[in-house]
Each structure stands twice: as structure tokens, then as C-alpha cells.
Amino acid sequence: MENRWLLSPSRRLTEAERKLVWKKPITHIESEAERRICSEVKRNWERGEMKITNILLEGDAGSGKTQLAKALSADFGLPYTKVTCFADMDKSDVLGAILPVLSEDGGEDGNKDGNVEYRYYPSEIVRAYENGWLLEIQEPTVIRDAAVLMALNSALEPDGSINLPTRIVHRHPDFIAIITTNRGYNGCRPLNEALRDRVQHTEKMDLPPVEVMIERAAAKTGCHDLDVLRTFAQTIVLLDQTAKANAIKGVAGMRSYFFWVDAVLQGADTIESLYHKVIYKITTDPAEIILLEQALSQQELLAALEDVARHRGGESDGDVLELRADGTFETELSTPDTNTPLAVALRKSPDSEGHSTRSSETTTATQSKDTGEDGTPMYHDLQPEDQAKLEEEKRTFRKHLNQQAREAVKGSAHEKVGMIVHRPEATPAHREEYQQIVSTLMPVIRELTRKTEPLLEHEVSLEFSPNRVYGTRFHAEKVASPDYRHFSKKQPPTEEPSLAVALRIDQSASMNAFGRLEAAKQAAVAVYEFCESCGIPVLIYGDTADRSPKEKMSLYSYIDWEERGLNDKYALMAIQSISNNRDGMALRILAEKLAKAPQMTKLLISLSDGQPKAMPDYTGSAAMDDMKQVIRDYSRQGILFLAAAIGQDKETICEIYGQDRFIDITDLGQLPARLVQMIAKYL
């Protein structure tokens, strides 16, 4: 059958090039994305500046990006090659390198009497670029040196060229670049804007529809039991969605699906192979596995899989699927109350009575990290002059925060809303309450910190590493040296986990119901202690609206990274439910503070039990649209939003933030550990 997508029918490939053209196996199923790309490229192939030669495939692992790139090689009739990027990649890996080579008449004694030549060896990128091949550039987002990506920019121009040490190479008219990259994985960075702009066609690679998954699995594995294939496909889809919704970094993809089906087809136990082929590829963390098991159980897919196992003649081990409630973070944090009624909608009135959190004028002590023999904290009195100086610093900082917050909302719908930023202070009762909570949470925090510490290790190196056989900088003074180490190679930039976290806590009146306020306090303590132990800059703010006719918006700054010496962690126990909530304004203020932080990754977690509502008309679609606009505006500036929903309006919160930014906290006992786990995943 004639290939209708062939781009250059008159071109004659060499024998070596013909071997590089991918051959589609009989199990290959043509996808909609493949047909769409082929159609677009073929339609524009002879249109000069409108020619499509740079394509981006972005999606999760196992979504078929590399398979699609290879299929395009077969469709277009072009030799296929690839380059896999890595963190320490530099320009020599893009352009090629000049290496020393001993001449053939160097003699038996090696380089003692032989003549040394320097020869240029082109990279795979240059070979594909010059000869007109289809090149897959895998994972350019992991490259730490921005200059390397910039080297690709000019090459990807329609009439681009590459300056080599020996000559200038111009782009072959048949050269096609396929950039394949994952979404938001550890070590990945946002794709360079200039590079992304040079892409003429992009495909968002997700799991295909269930029917397509079934068709591909049948072709790959030879399994034709449609009920089994459909049940397995639905399981894969649900696990993938659950992992994303709970910030679990693993992925359930097509590879997992194929190998699971094949294992069962060869006689493996359905349930046991589910763990080894799918679940353990997503995560091996016990708490996260329980979340996946619960999702399968709630959707009745566990029962369906057990039916499959019975029908195939194998009984599954019921113990494997037992939901392990004991020994997990959830039960360590709190014991679920089976008598707790379901959440109900609470009406928030504009005249809800609030309780002001005033700074104590009689406080004469400051906390110390020292503790007594019984574990209770010890306090030391300050001298009067030191106390006066401390109070002045607090007033100055509070004034600064008020000015900063008002500046953040200028030009927005909240510009004229009366607002005050408070800095609550702790009482002895708050200190006792904090110690009780932290004593319960510390085993969890220490364990997560222990797992995180390896991610925080880094090495500081010089800009260039000298005495290299090849590299990017030639040192003439080294030519006399007999070891041929005449080059230096640029070291990658210092790599430090760069994360800043902001936790926003909804202090509306409905937070007082069903233990939500206590859960919020526990979450705040867990986030603070974990970030402190890992050296992560953290903001913890609360907010409420309509506290008084003049104070329409109230912000409570509990922890702020600008003046860490003025933070009082025990003040987190002053979190209380007050009145309404003006979510969009609080998000804008915290997002603006995050945007100015120097860290690479900036995470804003919103902890809320309900949808926005404030007087006189901040409610319904208008309030939701305001929040969505804030999320859009600051997402473009690199802010990552996560909404932890703990109340009755979860569907509305999910609609506002989007499924990928939404975490459903059904069991409040899970909240502290879940938030800390999510933060750890962004390191």
C-alpha cells in the first residue's frame, strides 16, 4: 500500500539511512494524533514559511510520545534518530566535540612517539540536522544550563544554521524535530519560552479513550476478552486520575496496561500482578497505596477485578486488598469518629460576629527552644529596653505588611476594600496546645523529613572543570602537556532544591464545624515544622471577610519569611473561625508575595471548606470568576496552586481550581500528613 504521507518521494536514501526509517509493527494502531500531525505536515510541506517542521509532544510517561515520533518516521519516510537530554548537558553535547586522535603511524609505544591529531565528531543532533532526518529530542526540560537550550533556538528556525568549530551547517529541507517532554516531573523545568515559540504544532498526550486502549492492548498482547480488557483499562484510567488528584508523582500509563494484561494472559494472578505491574510503578509509599486502593474500592473496580480472577480460574488473595487502616499516618494523627455526621451547608450572614485577635500589651516573655525535663518549654524574661525594641519592630513590620497587601490588590476589584493585616500573638494556653499537637505529629514529620533530606543534598562546583580530554574551552598553554588534557568543560549550575511555600487558611465561620478548625491547626503546625526542618521558606496566612463594617477584609500573618525572627509559631493556635471569606483577594496577596520570591518552584496551598462569599456581592459566579482570574494570572508567573478541600463545597472548589490542582480531603485526620507529603514532592 502506497504511503500517502511520504514527504519527499523523489529523495533517494542511502542503505544506512533506509535502515534508520522505522518499520511499523503489525501491532501498531494509528492514532488520531498521528493522523492529525501527518495531515498538517503534508498540507504545509510546500508552503515555504508555513512549513511545519518543529513538533512538541507533551504528556505523561507511557502516553505514547516516543511511539508516535517513530511512527512519524515511517509515515514521512525519514530516518529516525533521537537524543536524550540530561541535566549536565552542555553545548558540546549539542554541537559535537573536538577530540584528540593518535595517528595510525604512532608506533607500538602508543603516544610516546606518535603524532596527535584533533578531529571533530558531530553530535547526533548535527547529523540529523545536516542530513535531513527526523530527530526526537527527549526531555529538554531537564537541562539545567539555559545556554544549551538557546543553542537550539537558531537551529530550529526554518532557515536556521549551526556554527560548528570547523564549518557552518545549514538546515536540511527535510529535517523535522520532534520534542517530547513530560509534564511536571521531578527534575523537569518549564520549557524555554523561545524554544516553545519555535514549535509549529503541539499535541497534548494523555491516556487515549478506553476503547482505543482496548484495541491497542488486543493487538499488542493477543488478548481478545473485551470484558477483561475494558475492566483493566478502566482501572488504569482511575489510578492515573487518582494519582494526579492526590499529587502522587507516579503515572499509570499504556506500558503498565500492556504488561498487566500480558501477565494475566500468561497465568499471573489478576490482583497480585496489578500491584507489581501498575500500583508499585506509581508509588510504593504505604499511605499513597491506600489512597489508590480506596479509589478502586469506591468505584467497585476491586470487585470487578476479583470477578475477572475467578472467571480466569484463579482466586485472589483477599489479604492483599485489605485496606490497611492501622499503622498509617491517618490513624496516627487522629482517630476517625464514626458518629460524625456528614457536613451540611452553612449559611454565612454579613453580621456574623467575629472575635478580634489583639496583640497582648502585657507579654513580657519570649519563647525559647529550651525545654524542661518534662518536655514543657522554658521561657526567659526580656529586659524592658529589649521588650520595647521588640514591640517597635513588630509594629514596623505589621505596617509594612499592610502597605504590601494594599499594593498587591491595586488595579483589581478589591482595591477599595477596607483591609487590615494582623499579626496574632500567642498566649500560654496557645503554647500548651501547640506542644500537644506537635508531639503527635512529630513522628510523621521526622519520617517525611528523613525521606526528603537526600533531595536537599547538593554540591557546589567551579564554573569550569579543567584538564579534560575534550570540552568547550581550549587551553593553548596545556599543549605541551603529554596527557592531552587541553580542554575545560563547563560545570552545571549549582543545583539546590529551590522551593517556597505559602499556606492560606480559610477562617470563615463554617470552619468551626465538624472539627475542621482543629484539622487546619494541625495542618499549619505540620507544614511549619516540616518546612523549618528542611529550610524551606514558608508563609502561613489566614483570612476572613466582613469582620466589621470598616474592616471588610482581615488577613492574619502567622508565619512570614521576611522577618523570621519576629515569627511566633505558637500563634498558629490563634487560628479561629470568624465570618465570611473573600478568597480571591487573599490568593492575590499571597501569590504576589510568592511571585517576588527568588525560589524556582513556588507553591500556594489553599485550605478551605467552602466557596467564596462576602458582602455585599462577592458570591456566585462573580466571585468564582475572580478566583479563576487570579489563578490564571499568577500561574503564568510560575505560581503552582493547590486547593485542599475539607468541606461541603468540594465540587465548586474543584471547578474553580481545576482537577489537576484539587485535593479532596475526605478524612480530616489525613490532612496534616497529606499537605506535608505534597510539599515534599515538589523538592
TrEMBL record:
Q: Record's Pfam families?
A: AAA_5 (PF07728)
Bias (Basic and acidic residues) ranges = 348-358
| Region of interest: Disordered | 347-381
InterPro entries in alphabetical order: ATPase_dyneun-rel_AAA, NorD/CobT, P-loop_NTPase, VWF_A, vWFA_dom_sf
Per UniProt, the ranges with Polar residues bias are 359-369
- The residue ranges of the VWFA domain are 500-679
Protein name (database record): AAA family ATPase
Which species? Tumebacillus lipolyticus
